[in-house]
Amino acid sequence: MKVVVFSEALQFFKMASALAQSLTEDTVGVFTQKVNFTRKLYLVDKVDEDGLVDFLSSTNFDLLVTGNVRRDRAIASRVAGRLKVGYVPDVTSIKLEGNKVSATRLAYSGIATAEVESSTPLVITVSSFPGEPKEVEAEVVRVELKEGKVRVLEVKRSSGGLSPATAQIVVGVGRGIGSKENVSYAQELASVLGGAVAGTRPVCAELGWLPEDVQVGLSGLRIRPRLYLALGVSGQPQHIAGIRDSKVVVAVNKDENAPIAENADYFVAGDAVEFCKVFTEKILKLKG
Fold it and tell me: Do residues 230 and 249 lie in contact, with contact meaning Cβ atoms separated by under 8 Å?
């Protein structure tokens, strides 16, 4: 049983490696940094989607496990399509018996789970998996990926600061914050907390109050911060799917019956902008 692991993000690479180690010792990693979580590591020189699809398709895996950030999911589905093998996203646990695979995956935006049976070779994305991978001695092989059809001519930081994908504190903005101008209060709060700002799909993709690369939800980022502050977020299932793995969710909303209340650890019935002003002031006082 050969399990190949890939993710663009370290936290998901470690999660996928932990899952791979629970299945076999024949683990192979494909990553951009030298890490010791798989017996063999292909150290790629860049994250080129076309190049990675070509390379991962050539590794003769029985099981390909990728992370769950947006590019991970795109690459995983393309590899499965290229090789015409099964594809199971959002896996939380898996069992192997010979070439038979039984997997548990999230369904309906994470409000339910489904049991799926398939056979190897198979491609999965891992949504969550308990524990940390063991460090092992890895054989490192450097790989220069082929140039894909899409070439990066220039890189511009569109949102600046921390990414909500990796931040430990994320301040999420929904339409309930009122206006694009009011988003600055959330950004100031995130700054004093040392966190990142994120937005719902309406805020990012429809209203343009925040760039689309910080959109959180089913069609955007799936984040795992220690603290998620949901400001004026209604709590639609598509957004909840992206924040479900947050350790603590604090929601601020004028509507006490908003769906976010059922998904929050703490709920503040009030105005999101006033909450930002008061909370920011108190934190600044604590910092002196």
Answer: yes
Closest CA to 39 of 125, 136, 134: 136
Q: CB burial class (10 A; 0-12, 13-18, 19+) of residue 131?
A: exposed
Residue 218: pLDDT band (50, 70, 90) is: confident
* Averaged pLDDT, 169-194: 96
Entry field: residues in the chain = 288
**CA dihedral sign of residues 154, 221, 35, 21:** negative
What is the end-to-end Cα distance of the chain in Å, rounded?
57
Decide if pLDDT at 159 tops 80: no
The sign of the dihedral angle between the CA atoms of 47, 53, 59, 65 is positive
What is the predicted pLDDT for the residue at 158? 56
pLDDT mean across residues, the chain: 92
Residue type, 167: A
pTM for this one?
Answer: 0.73
What is the per-residue pLDDT across 162-180, written as a single tens digit (0 to 9) for each?
Answer: 888 889 999 999 999 999 9
